Amino acid sequence: MKNSYEPLHRDFFMQSTIDLAQALLGCTLVKITNEGTAAGYIVETEAYMGPMDRAAHSHQNRRTKRTEIMFAEAGHVYTYLMHTHCLVNVVSSDKEKPEAVLIRAVEPVAGMELMFKRRGMTDIKNLTNGPGKLTKSLGISMEDYGRVLWEPPIFISNGISPHSISQGKRIGINNTGEAKDYPWRFWITENPFVSRHQIESKKPVI
DNA sequence: TGGATGATGGCCT
DNA sequence: GGCCATCATCCAA
Questions:
Q1: Is residue A3 situated within a structural domain?
Q2: Which of A75, A87, A157, A186 is in Cβ range 3.0-4.6 Å of A28 for a Cys bridge?
Q3: Average pLDDT over residues A3-25
Q4: DSSP readout, A129-167?
Q5: Overall pTM surpassing 0.90 (yes/no)
Q6: How confident is the model at residue A199 (pLDDT cuts 50, 70, 90)?
Q7: For residue A200, is it within any domain?
């Protein structure tokens, strides 16, 4: 395990949301707490495109206490609660443009013991292969809401270069009309830690 | 102020 | 695949 990680510069986040969603693949997501450091390579992301995207919380510029941080500068942390789980997003695009990238899965890299302890299990394949699982493993919570990702205790660092990137429909947004079919999910091809290996349509898409 | 909602996960059959 | 725990947030009234 590395002793320290170097955060990427804030300029890294200044690219289009679709580009950022892919650029984040292979990067290391690091969280430091008083329990220790935990980190993972980002292997799966989804882009949420703001006002025009019915699946986005910021659809039609909906601006509430929850979505407020989506309107901030790129590189802020947008965490929110889904049932009993915390999900983490990277705010993207310009100020006042509420776009974000959801981190859906990481590959464990450092702090494995701590992650297992937090999750209360020992199966590495199920440790961080989902948006709620990775936040619990890394110790990411609502306390991280509004933090910036270019300095500790939560930040993005260099990692690996994906050999190949796959693209498909986003997951879990089946009540959002056409938006459910937009191909804004990205993952490292054949990485064993992605949340789902393929999405099948039960009915043919016309 | 209350009821509906959900970018999930774990357990069940 | 189905069921549902469980709770902050949101919005209608």
A1: no
A2: A157
A3: 95
A4: SSHHHHHHHHT--GGGTT-BTEETTEEEE-----S-EEE
A5: yes
A6: low
A7: no
Q: What is the pLDDT of residue A206?
A: 30
- Is A36 part of a structural domain of the chain? yes
- Indicate the average pLDDT of chain A: 94
**Full residue range of the structural domain in which residue A95 is found:** 10-188
Nearest nucleotide to A65, CA against C1' atoms: C9
Answer yes or no: are the C-beta atoms of A146 and A77 closer than 8 Å: yes
Q: Rounded to whole angstroms, how far apart are CA atoms A186 and A170?
A: 9
Nearest CA to the C1' of C7 belongs to which residue? A83
Position A39 in a domain: yes
Distances (CA, A) of A189 to A40, A163, A198: 17, 8, 11
